[in-house]
Amino acid sequence: MYGELVLVALIVIGLLSRSSIITTAACILLIVKLTHLDRFLPSIERRGIELGLLFLTLAVLVPFASGRVQPKDLVAAFTGWTGWVAIAGGAIGAFLNSRGLDTLRADPQLIVGIVLGSIAGVLLLRGIPVGPLMAAGISAILIKLIQLFMGK
């Protein structure tokens, strides 16, 4: 019963914060729970990130498939400083995401803080909760830095 109450609370928070992503995710999980399809929760947990990344990658690649990105746009990515910054940002983001995935595998209870932080970011900062891996990667870097400065 606790899980259902948390999901209902997340639905309310998602509605109040106008976050359709949190609301929809909590609704889907609540339906899974209420229809006694709990046996699929481990599969959703295990493959959910992969499916999410697949759909994010599809959305990012659509401009290539639709022809909106032309060869001149690819050349511009290598000839201007903003293109190089974008390439560096993509590389750093990918690195942080891999650190985030490693961190979540090693310390899964961090997901509670990441979810709470994501909700706070949506409510207080009008953010978009699409980056739990990035949040975990940033958390991993911050944890390492704090451990370094604290001498642990």
TrEMBL record:
It is a multi-pass membrane protein. It comes from the Bacteria. InterPro entries: UPF0756_TM. Pfam families: DUF441. Coiled coil: none annotated. Belongs to the UPF0756 family. This is UPF0756 membrane protein ACFPOF_14510. The lineage of its organism: Bacteria, Bacillati, Bacillota, Bacilli, Bacillales.
